[in-house]
Design brief:
- The complex is a heterodimer of chains A (387) and B (303).
- Chain A has 387 residues and is of the alpha/beta class.
- Chain A has 2 domains: 19-147 and 286-366, Rossmann fold, CATH 3.40.50.2300; 149-278, Rossmann fold (3-Layer(aba) Sandwich), CATH 3.40.50.2300.
- Chain A is built from 12 helices and 16 strands.
- Chain A is elongated.
- Chain B is mainly alpha-helical and 303 residues long.
- Helices cover 72% and strands 4% of the residues of chain B.
- Chain B contains 10 helices and 4 strands, in the order H-H-H-H-E-E-E-H-H-H-E-H-H-H.
- A two-stranded antiparallel ribbon of chain B has the order 1-4. Chain B has a two-stranded antiparallel sheet with strand order 2-3.
- The relative contact order of chain B is 0.20.
- The chains are: A alpha/beta (387), B mainly alpha (303).
């Protein structure tokens, strides 16, 4: 009897040891992405890009760190596009899955709270798409691949003033979304600081709202030269249609959250001819960007949106950080510290969404592009604005 | 002045949807004393049904002209959605009623049915939003400074017609008399030879059918569909029905428009964050002064 118990214990022990040894050969990375909820398209694009990267690394035998190859393991956690679920997903990845780094969440609404969780738990996190300054502010463990709203706001203001010859502007934004609210405020202050004219209407709505007629009636009454709509694509489709129904004939200007193929599916011809600022334009891309786009199209049948490209760059950044760390420790805590130090040591990075330099806060300084929605519903490069 | 009339039109359109959904709550409640919490989700199912029906009709197989497809979509959507409502009654509420379950359990069952509808939709169709096709050619009329679309007019007129129809059914027809009788005394009525189950089925057909119609019109007015679109609007319509006096057709109609007017009014003059705060404070005050709602009559419990 005793012998059997001993045998059993030895067996269990050896299995645990084997497991630990196996774990040391893989690097576990968590993804905190919106696979359901308001913006499922974004989560799917991110996952697609990540799967492509993973296949590249693992089919080559793994990632080489300090002369030894390690397999990557990606764990995708759905944050339902909700702030509170993003925090839970981050905790699950950190505590249950014991990941050494987290990619995501994408939008600032989730990235700002989840960034706090990652920072408090001392786990490196890279948000691909979040442009709100608060995501990385005073958080040494949080990084990002996208430019910031304080840069995007003035880009939009300058472009609209020049292109539409606008003397007045109006803003309609989602007040319960950190991204939308932050960008709306930055746009307003930069529009006013540049002396481009008055912001004649500054209206807000909630995330689940479907009727914007009251806000739009106020805006149209103020008679702006254009309306800035820094909203998610599902709301943009409704806002543009309702504004036209209420008799608005002027142009709209959007932000990077517009840049998904779903915008065209939902908004259709009514969005044709409008402009928005974003991270990259798929049409007319060159070099590594083109290679990425072609491979993505071949694999998934659709053009990668900016969040897919930025997820690709975020993984690139992480790999760079791991390489800078120089070795892999089987203790996730030590590994997390090494990756963070590695990431902080990156000074510049050439990604497929352009090359970036990093400032002291860990934020990239990179160019933005303004894209026009053509009459075929494609996103055509209009101009590039660099800081 | 233009601005004022424009906002009244906005409020009428938005209130129409609350009214149409609130009518369904009130019908079922009036007969069964059951708050059918799945009603908002039946509305959502109606929107999806109309999406598939319309898509099929204008699709390559049938290839109807959009206007003709619209005319066929209306009855088809209403019939299919009422089937969903009747199925729900048959598989969820009736067995509980047969076993003499307390009303509380039936209400919880309704809540669960609503969630089942939402999540089965999510599981089958995924989280990606759907774009409703344009069925009627949109016309934008500009009169003075007021802009109105043909769709908006249609929504408001439909809400009024549905209200008048249901009011007529409940107060002027035999089946309406049976409905009122059941709500009056559920135990004595079968003894009079009134087929109680049939009357309940008719109630569900009416309630769900018009929820389907509301879903179709909603999908045409706000053409982005998602599985949870019925949740919030359903709850709010329920509150509107309670404020109007649940169980009373007129109350649901007035309550729905009242909520629409308050919401649009608040957003017009205040930041949107105040909308629900103001709206529900006003509704709370109404209930505080008149706990049975605007048109409700207090009920004495019979032992």
């Amino acid at each position: 009897m005793r012998k059997t118990v001993m045998m059993f214990l030895v067996l269990v022990l050896s299995m645990v040891l084997a497991g630990a040894a196996l774990a040391a050969d893989t690097i576990k990375v968590g993804f905190n992405i919106p696979l359901t909820g308001d913006i499922p398209e974004v989560g799917e694009g991110s996952k697609n890009a990540a799967e492509m990267y993973l296949a590249d690394i693992n089919s080559a035998g793994g990632l080489e760190v300090g002369g030894k190859k390690y397999m990557l393991e990606f764990i995708y956690m759905d944050n339902e596009s909700k702030a509170e679920s993003a925090v839970n997903a981050a905790l699950k990845l950190i505590e249950q899955e014991q990941v050494v780094a987290i990619i995501g969440p994408n939008s600032s609404k989730q990235a700002v709270p989840a960034g706090g969780t990652a920072n408090d738990n001392r786990v490196p996190m890279i948000s691909p798409w979040s442009t709100n300054p608060d995501t990385t502010k005073d958080r040494p463990w949080v990084f990002r691949a996208a430019f910031l709203d304080p840069f995007q706001g003035p880009v939009v203001a300058d472009f609209a003033a020049k292109k539409f010859n606008a003397k007045s502007s109006a803003v309609l934004f989602d007040i319960s979304n950190d991204y939308s609210k932050g960008l709306a405020e930055i746009f307003k202050s930069s529009w006013e600081a540049k002396n481009l004219g008055p912001v004649v209407a500054f209206e807000s709505h909630g995330t689940k709202d479907q009727d914007f007629s009251a806000q739009l009636t106020n805006i149209i009454r103020a008679n702006p030269d254009f309306i800035f709509v820094p909203n998610n694509y599902n709301q943009v489709a409704l806002i543009v249609q309702q504004a036209r129904d209420l008799g608005y004939k002027g142009p709209f200007m959007g932000s990077d959250a517009w840049g998904t193929p779903d915008l065209i599916k939902l908004c259709g011809a009514q969005c044709y001819g409008q402009y928005f600022s974003t991270h990259y334009a798929a049409a007319g891309a060159k070099g590594a960007t083109k290679v990425f786009i072609d491979r993505y199209v071949e694999k998934y049948g659709v053009e990668p949106a900016d969040y897919a490209a930025l997820t690709w760059d975020s993984i690139g950044l992480l790999v760079e950080g791991i390489k800078k760390a120089g070795k892999v420790d089987s203790n996730p805590r030590k590994m997390r510290q090494m990756i963070r130090d590695g990431l902080a040591a990156i000074e510049s990075f050439d990604g497929i969404t352009g090359s970036a330099k990093f400032d002291a806060e860990g934020d990239p300084i990179k160019c933005a592009v303004v894209v026009k929605i053509s009459d075929e519903g494609t996103f055509v490069f209009e101009e590039s604005v660099c800081p | 002045m233009d601005f004022f009339i424009q906002n009244i039109l906005n409020a009428l359109q938005w209130g129409s949807f609350y009214a149409l959904i609130a009518l369904g709550y009130t019908l079922v409640y009036g007969v069964l004393r059951l708050i059918n919490f799945a009603h908002g989700d039946i509305f959502m199912v109606g929107a999806y049904i109309s999406f598939f029906v319309a898509g099929f009709l204008i699709g390559p197989i049938i290839g109807l002209a959009p206007a003709l497809a619209f005319a066929v979509t209306i009855p088809l959507t209403m019939v299919l959605t009422s089937l969903v409502g009747v199925t729900l009654e048959r598989i969820a509420y009736r067995p509980l009623r047969r076993k003499g379950a307390h009303r509380l359990y039936v209400v919880i069952t309704a809540l669960m049915c609503g969630l089942i509808l939402e999540y089965s939709n999510l599981a089958v169709l995924g989280a990606s939003r759907l774009k409703f096709p344009e069925l009627i050619e949109k016309q934008i009329w500009s009169i003075g400074g007021v802009t109105v679309t043909n769709l908006k007019v249609m929504v408001i007129v439909t809400a009024i017609l549905v209200f008048l129809f249901l009011q007529w059914v409940v107060t002027r027809t035999r089946i309406g008399m049976a409905m009122r009788a059941i709500s009056y005394d559920k135990f004595a009525i079968p003894l009079m030879g009134i087929p109680i189950d049939n009357v309940i089925v008719v109630t569900f057909i009416l309630g769900s059918g018009f929820a389907g119609l509301a879903g179709l019109l909603f999908a045409m007015s706000y053409p982005v569909l998602e599985p949870f679109m019925g949740m919030l609007i359903g709850w709010k319509a329920f509150i509107a029905a309670v404020v109007g006096g649940i169980g009373d057709i007129k109350g649901a109609f007035v309550g729905g428009f009242l909520l629409g007017f308050i919401e649009v009014g608040v957003v017009t003059f205040f930041p949107s964050t105040y909308r629900d705060l103001f709206a529900f404070t006003i509704l709370l005050l109404i209930l505080w002064m008149k706990p049975t709602g605007l048109f409700g009559i207090p009920q004495s419990t019979k032992i």
